[in-house]
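Predict structure. Input: Lysosome-associated membrane glycoprotein 1, 246 residues.
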Amino acid sequence: MTQIGAVQSWWLGVTLQLILAGVLLQGYAAAQTTAAPHKEPMRPEKGIYVVNSSNGTACLLASMGLQLNITFNSVSQNKTVRNIVNLQPNVTKSSGSCDADTASLRLSTDSEKTNLTFFFSLNTTSNKYHLSNVSLSAAWPDMKEPVSADNSSLDFLRGTLGFSYMCREQQTLTVSPDLSINTFQVQVQPFGVSGDQFGAAEECQLDEDDMLIPIIVGAALAGLVLIVLLAYLIGRKRSHAGYQTI
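Output follows.
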């Protein structure tokens, strides 16, 4: 009887671990689907932007949804506010340039008088590129004065020459105290473009973590289930053996 009680206690402990693992899995799933703050607009539409070289061939490809977070002095509210605006691809013009180790993508809208430029740099020794500079100028109707921001010491969207950088998860690129940019479903290739198609994608760490965590949790749950089954079988065998000796 003592053996049966010990097995039952052990069974209860493992069952509690299973319940805890299930709660953790549900919590992870909830965290992945948590809605954005109520004041934020809906997820921005993904735009496709192409920069051509002097000979007319594509030299920079970008596909992404963009959301601007800008702090400015509001005329209507008579105070400093932070406004979040989606960049609309259908009213956004793209241009830019490509050199051996630098490339730029300029996005502009006439209605909002917004000019956003991404600058990429290539290290020709390591064949690695990154987003090194972002500049913005905006003159929205509600702004008391135009807003400008520029940061030339950034290190975002890192990739390898000949490959595209991809990140499906939302990222926030902090440019200055008055400007940050939310990116969605980014795929960009500023160097080594062949034709009009992206090269093989190098996925960001956020995407890799998003895939890895459910695998780890699932494997842990499967392992606990196996342990419970083995414990149950061992417990049944011992309990039958105990009854036979009485």
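The longest helix spans residues 205-245.
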